[in-house]
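Tokens in:
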């Protein structure tokens, strides 16, 4: 009997194709909007997490400064000896590096630009999981002597050297000349808007001597061995730094520690919530589409009253009529859902490269949208189907 109902429903839909399409337009728009928003949202989440992960997924970034609950307004800076103490006294560290960041005018062959300059120790690249596309890293001699050698980002290479081989070539940074010894692999934007490819990296002592004029360390970057507990290592780090900075038992920390894994988790959580909220708003269109189906099915019942009477007169029972119209409503909702899914996939494939985010296909949301649309067809199609099934056969046959 179900096959007969499907056949009759298909014929009814084909008989009024334009009306059928307009009937399911709300379902089409609702499904397309939900899937597109969720797909783009997931792609944005992946991109943001990837950008933040460029800092390192298991990093602790230590900076002098007030904590959220207060602390010293003018905290003392870190020194290189603090970095050495962390390296030697705390277990579970994969790499630790000091960092000093400043900016300077870089000039070569008539091209000049203000560029971010990082003074670091060699473990910086290890901590950041950053490799070289060409050249070498800093040697112990480079670091100890504070030699003016540098590693350049991919964008710096394009701007100042174009097709020329940069290795061994001089680059004027402020008032000093540094020799390019390595080219960093492209990293793009970080999760905080920094263009990592527009960075020049020099040995820490070279930057301190020629650009900042102090021995202060702005940031300590600690890369954690993933086999160790981040919480335990962070507690040990806090204890060591409090001891070295001579903070009494009740004194507030005058430094802050940022866990990049917590940042990644927080960003992913926020984007998931926003995607869910936007998807829920878009899902309202599905309910509107369901109301449209119910409205048109009620009209269809009125138009086909005589047909219903004839079916009942030749032996069809109320259940058969109920099933026929229920199947028709569900079939309309399912067809609208399939069209919406197709439009959403096409739209997502077009929008993803425009927004510079990856296309992330999620079969769960597609299947859920289809099943929810079918449920809407059943729920909103039941009342018209029930009305058709309860018609009096004699009165139905008299209907003109």
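Residues out:
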């Amino acid at each position: 009997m179900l096959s007969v109902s499907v056949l009759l429903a298909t014929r009814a839909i084909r008989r009024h194709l334009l009306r059928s399409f307009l009937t399911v337009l709300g379902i089409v728009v609702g499904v397309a909007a939900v899937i597109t928003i969720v797909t783009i949202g997931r792609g944005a989440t992946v991109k943001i997490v990837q950008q933040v992960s460029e800092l390192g997924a298991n990093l602790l970034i230590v900076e002098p400064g007030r904590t959220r609950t207060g602390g010293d307004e003018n905290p003392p800076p870190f020194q290189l000896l603090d970095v050495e103490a962390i390296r030697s006294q705390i277990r579970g560290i994969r790499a630790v590096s000091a960092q000093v960041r400043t900016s300077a005018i870089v000039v070569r062959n008539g091209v000049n630009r203000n560029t971010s300059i990082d003074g670091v120790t060699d473990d910086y690249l290890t901590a950041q999981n950053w490799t070289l596309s060409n050249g070498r890293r800093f040697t112990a001699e480079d670091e100890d002597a504070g030699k003016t050698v540098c590693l350049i980002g991919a964008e710096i290479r394009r701007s100042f050297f174009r097709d020329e081989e940069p290795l061994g070539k001089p680059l004027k940074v402020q008032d000093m000349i540094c020799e390019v010894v390595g080219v960093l692999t492209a990293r793009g934007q970080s999760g905080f808007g920094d263009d990592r490819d527009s960075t020049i990296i020099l040995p820490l002592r070279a930057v301190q001597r020629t650009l900042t004029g102090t021995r202060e360390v702005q940031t300590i970057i600690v890369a954690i061995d993933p086999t160790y507990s981040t919480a335990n290592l962070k507690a040990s780090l806090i204890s060591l730094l409090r001891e070295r900075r001579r903070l009494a038992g009740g004194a507030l920390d005058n430094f802050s520690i940022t866990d990049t894994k917590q940042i990644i988790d927080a960003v992913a959580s926020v984007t998931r919530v926003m995607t869910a909220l936007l998807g829920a708003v878009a899902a309202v269109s599905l309910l509107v589409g369901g109301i449209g189906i119910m409205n048109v099915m009620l009209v269809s019942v009125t138009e086909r009253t005589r047909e219903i009477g004839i079916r009942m007169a030749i032996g069809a029972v109320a259940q058969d009529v109920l099933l026929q119209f229920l199947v028709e409503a569900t079939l309309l909702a399912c067809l609208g859902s399939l069209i919406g899914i197709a439009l959403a996939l096409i739209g997502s494939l077009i929008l993803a490269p425009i927004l510079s985010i990856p296309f992330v296909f999620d079969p769960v949301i597609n299947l859920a949208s289809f099943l929810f649309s079918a449920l809407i067809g059943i729920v909103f199609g039941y009342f018209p189907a029930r009305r058709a099934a309860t018609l009096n056969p004699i009165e139905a046959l008299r209907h003109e």
